Every structure is written in structure tokens, then in C-alpha cells.
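Quick illustration, no need to memorize.
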Amino acid sequence: MSCWKPLSKEEFEAIVSKYKDNPKIEIDYENLKFIPKFNEQIKKYYSNKIKGAKVENLVNEVYEAWFDYIIRIYERPKEKDILMFLPCAAKKPYYKSKTHRTIQRAISGFQIFNRIHRVIVSNPGIIPWEFHTYWPFNSYDWPEWEETEDIKKLYYWVTYKRVKEFLRRHQYNYYTVYMKPDSLTYKAVMDASKELNIKIIPLLDEKTYEKCKGQGNPLVKEPCIESLKNNLKQLQKQIYEGSNS
């Protein structure tokens, strides 16, 4: 399968620059923007490939087409200047999962909620919340118990590189993360942000996480959710105190 690779805004503008002063020509990049879509034949071909902890469910043409779109074409919503990196969930789409429903309830009451841009980091790549119901993000499965040591190493490096590219391409005023501190995804996020000298705020402290670690899904446990809310409250205070000074 070969994927169409559209022009980025910069590439488009470079090509049409010689026409920009021509009154007879209207230049409109927005008409060329697209969201990756795949026909049923491609979906069927990849239906088994996007299941399981394996190389082809980490790097494939569908995931790369989406990542290319996220990096070169996509622009984050202007009003969402607070990045919140989140983990994936076994249940798809994410909004149906207990993890994301619990997080939604915890953060939706904050004044800064509409400024928060939820972005999931998982094996298909970097997934802004507004795309999590799109294929293949609503259909893949990555059972962690199937991971071999080689797959873990590859997962870390692929994720690290993707996070780094995303952070280079998309700027925010504030950066946060709510994940299990001992996960490979968290390590990739923190290492990539450190490499770029970006201060990222962990919304779950390690001491609290240790209390919940052996209790099934720790991210939905009350102490961890309280850590999320308390840290978000501090950030909100910092934002509004800063705007009033």
C-alpha cells in the first residue's frame, strides 16, 4: 500500500508564491487540507496487523500516514494552549473507557478545561483527542503482556522520536502529563521533553502512584485522581495569578 502525501502549508506556499500578487488567482490552502481516510479494503488488510504487541502494530504505512498528517498538516486548536499527554486505554474509542471517563470527570470542572488539549500517546502514534474516534485509533489493540524485551525497546524509541517530533512541531504555553510514572510511554514523554528543554508537569506524583500501583488500573484510583486534580489546581492558580500580575 502506498499512501498519498499531501503538501504541507509551507510547501504549498512555496509553490504558489509566484502567483500571490496575481489578482485573478485566489490562493486557498484550506481547500487542500484533509484528514487521512482509508477504504474498506485497506481496513480489512490491516484488521489483524493492528492487533497485538508486534512490530507491524507499531510501525506501518497507516500509522505513518496519520503521523505525517499530525506533524506536517495538522494545527492544534488555537484556544487549547495546555497540552495534556495521556495514555491509551484497552477499550476503544477512548471516551468509552473507564480511564478516560474518570479523567474527564476529574478535569471538566476546571476553569482551564477548555484550554486543555488532550493528546494520547500510544503505539499508533500521537493522537489528539479530536481524532480518537477515527480509524485505526478506534480499532487497534496492544496487549502489554505480549511485549517482548525487543518490542519494549523498539516501542520506547519509536514513541520517543514521535513525541519529540510532535513537541518540535506544536507549541503550547503549558505542558502536562498524566500517566503511570513507571511506564515506557511516560519515560519516552519525559525524555523527549527534556531533550528539547521543555518543562513538562507530571500530574501524578510517584509517591501517590506507589500507593495505587497494585490496585488494578491505578490511574482511576481516588488518590491518583486527587493528585491529578491538585496539580491541575496549582497550574490553574499559576495561570490566573500570572495573568493578573
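Residues 8 and 219 are 37 Å apart (CA to CA).
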